[in-house]
Sequence to fold (465 residues):
Amino acid sequence: MKKINHYNIIDRIGIGGMGEVYRAEDTVLERCVAIKIMHHHLSQDSENVDRLIREAKAAAKLVHPNVITIHEIGEADFGYYIVMEYINGISLSDFLYHNDKIDQERAVNFTIQILKALNAAHKAGILHRDIKAENILITEDDQVKVLDFGIARLSKNDNLTKNNVILGTIDYMAPEQMLGDDIDERCDLYAAGMVLYQLLTRLLPFKSSNTVQILFNKLNEEPASPSSINPRINRELDAIVLKAIHKKPSERWQTAEEFLTVLRDFLDQLRRDKIKPAAVPINYDLDFEEDGKNALTLKNVFIGRQKEFKRLVQLFNDVKIGRGQSVIIKGEAGIGKSRLASKFRSYAEYNKACVIYGACLYKEGMDAYLPFIDGLRDFFSRDNQRLTENDRNELVSRVRKQMPDFSLFMDRFTTTLVQKSKNKKGSTKKSQDSQLENFIHLFSLISNLHPLILIIDDMQWADVA
Fold:
């Protein structure tokens, strides 16, 4: 494709689930633009077309420096497209990947700009409903642009959701949105709070490969304070973030303007008084026993686990220089094994490791490789900030070349990876052995990019295979 009407295509700058984005020259107005073209197979579905038109209409209603400007929407032989302003920048997800540390002042400044865009949208009666790192662009001069209003709600009577399908991105989604309850502006503010949390810690507080587990955690667990992960964060900012992502809408910031005001006041105070970062809370007194090589047995005291955590960090340092390690964390139920693993996961991800986390389930007939499948589904998700688009595409390309049988499952990682065999007795075991070899090969490919940590929780329920 070289031309669309009076737009000369220069190159492709992005690709996503809905379509491809190209940089192009507007030959009439002599300017650079971005053109989003819906995938041809999706343009055959009227609901997808409605979503594209909705995106154009929602953004076109907003004339704001922090919202992408829409120039036109059109239809050609290949399908529908949107022409928008071209932004010389990168997505916030890529920005997070390429920047090891983001100071709290910069993180707050980004969030203020996101909230300015949301404030304008809410005043126009528009809910974005999908605020996340991938839908935010950062320019070279740190200007924020909010984009992708594809599932925005344009009015209270407007509802894109059909057949009880909840639209949005699970990790950033407010609990009431996940449950399909009535939502308002506070669901966008929750997502903005999640983005701020991620900017401060490089992590999301309720990460899991299991959607039900994420919802359970959001409804029942309290997120770790940002300063417990990144000690440079001020305690006052802790409180602001945790209020934004409170499980109850009534306990959050009620409007974008209110959230904005609090963050502006915080910045003013930070610059005026030079607030010192919070100290790391000391709450690790739990003892442990060694039980064979690299086995940690937790005692029946649930106070903390500094010694075990330090041991895991030592082993992680060995991994970073090429010495692989296997560790078993043992102990009675409720003693804190999963919590220790979760804290170590946060540490490893903060130190640029690739972490694949899966859990065994107590259920008859479950796939023996389910923990691997769930972990890989989460790892290859486009919401995984530890994996750049280039790394993801490179991995998929290598798998398709080197592991053709396994590549059939790359795009979705279904929960039944090993298909039921209709061949002779004994072929199923051969297939399972082959799949295990494929998993090992895939883990090896991933570890060539970054140190790899594979965490399997609830091993007591593992399939004997």
